[in-house]
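Throughout this review, each integer encodes one residue's backbone shape. One record appears below.

===
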Amino acid sequence: MTKISILGCGWLGLPLAKALIEKGNSVNGSTTSENKLSILEDAGINPFLLTVESENISENIVHFLAESEILIIDIPPKLRAVDPNAEKKTFVEKIRNLIPFIEKSTIKKVLFISSTSVYGDDNDLVTEETIPNPDTESGRQLILAEKLLQENPNFETTILRFAGLIGEDRHPVKFLAGKENLENPDAPINLIHRNDCIRIIKEILSQSKWNEVFNAAAPFHPTREMYYTQEAKDQNLPLPKFSTKKSNIKKEISSIKVEESLNFQFDQTDYY
């Protein structure tokens, strides 16, 4: 039995924890909401109320990491501050503040959940060899946080960069339905279902794929206009209307490395 700590038992982290427990692992899980402690406990997770800030961390971080061999970090940058400068370095500093506690713990391996937003939109086919060039603040902070973890010699780190996350209860078409003059109608979509995310993580852990970088997106890249129009029809939502202006965004995330290195097949290669 492997003991695993998951920092961030949210939309992805909670079902991931359940899946890892089903495989016979012991899981410590953190939440920032006291109301969720009972939910974690009911799922068989050892629950911890834990906040990681740029200047301090909850005292129980030591117990959260204690005796675990693997740490999965699944916390978003959350950079939507009223003052754009107020949280400019917050996420990077959170990770920097966390690292000394990892160093002093039994953690030997770290899996950092990142995003393909680190590449920006000025690429065509994107692989793990593509040089990151983020064009958002969250993307910039993610790449800096990645480097902090990768360069630390006290533990092995694998970076897992997910494309846009979707699931039964989460789909971007709900925010686009009925809207008009939407940009980039011919840009390819890059999405991945939560179920595939969890399966990929399980394979990384079971195959001990450490000191690696993986991109993960379903091998299915229709245009935004084609995909979201069809999704709106399927879900009986008002159809989104796209601009007739073509875009120069051709960014397409390749998951060839995930498929070949992990011998992985996506459950769904088309998300219609």
